Each structure stands twice: as structure tokens, then as C-alpha cells.
Amino acid sequence: FSFNSSGGGRCPACEGRGQITVPMQFLADIETICESCAGKRFRPDLLEIRYRGRNIDEILQMTADEAFRFFHANYRIQTKLNALRQAGLAYLRLGQPLSVLSGGEAQRLRIAAMLAGVPQDSTESDQGAATAGQLTKSGRTLFLFDEPSSGLHGKDVQNLVRCLDFLLQTGHSVIVIDHDQELLAQADWLIELGPGPGVRGGRILNSGPVQTHSGAN
Asked: Can you tell me the distance from the alpha carbon of 87 to that of 197, in angstroms, rounded to the nearest whole number?
């Protein structure tokens, strides 16, 4: 199954987009549901193929959390889906276009990709061996996140913190720009810029361990 080529079974009318673009001469183009596939993006014969009673369109409509339970017998798939859950993205649909993700969601998706590279039930020594191999190949990375907590429920901030901790434990460095007090309280070093926004800011007001910063208390 693929939207990238006709050989992957995509709908030939909409080329796997599920929508048809109607150009307008003086107005913005209009997107309409593809009549050929009814927005399901695949050819009818592909939709007849079912796995545990679901076709590919029905599976792509599942959230990561729903799919994690659906694929309970497939460890490899569950490992990838569990990474999305850990990154606070359990609500995303599997077939959701990347273009509709918020900035924070896109950043957490990259964290999930890093998490998915290590077996979730392995021991710490196993994880260390696995990540050491990854670091040898790809090197250590400096991650810069701009408000990754944007749109997150309070209880999901802790999931985000655990994801960031994972990056640190595997040898990477993390710089986070954020206003969430719960997230800031977990920082090793805090830098406060101000005193105001935009042109009224840009100066370092405070810099040091988070314990010495009154704003994080």
C-alpha cells in the first residue's frame, strides 16, 4: 500500500490524495472529495483486502492509541506506535497528513522517531548498547525545540519530559524554548530573556541552575 506510486494501489483519479483540486480563476482553489474513491485514497480492489476485519482505509483512520491495541500481536508495529504514545501523540490518526500538524506536534514526531529506534522493553544495558551503535553511526545531535509543549494537556507534559530525558541519556544535547512552568522546572540550566517581548527584550535577565531561578518555583 502506497500513495507515492500507482503501483501502490492509490486512486488514479486523485493520485492518493482523497481530494480533487478545482482551480478557481479569481478565488482560492477549492478542494472536493474524490468521487472515485470517496476520499479513501485507494482503489476499490485494494479496499477489499482486510486484516482482522479492517481494510487499509479503516486502519489509517485509527489513532496511534487505537492502532497500538489493534496490533497487539505485532511487536514491531507496537514499538513504533508506543513511541508516538510516549511523545504525547497518541491521538494522531495514522493517515493524518504532516501538513496539518502544529509546530509542537511536528517536533514531538521527530522525538518519537528517535524513541522508536530502541526496544521499549529492553534492559538499560541493552538500550545503552543499541544507542551506542546509533551514536557511532549518526553522531551526537543538538536538538533545538521551539515550544514543544504547545497544545499539550498538562498530564502529557511529563511524557514530553521523559522523551527529552531519553535524548539526553543517549548522548544528545537539548535546548528548549518554552513557557510551560512544569517543563522549565525539569531543566538543568535556565536562561531567562527579557524584560519584554520582541524589540523590548533580547537581554539575559537570569542564567543558572533551575533551583536558583525564582520563576521556575
From this structure: 29
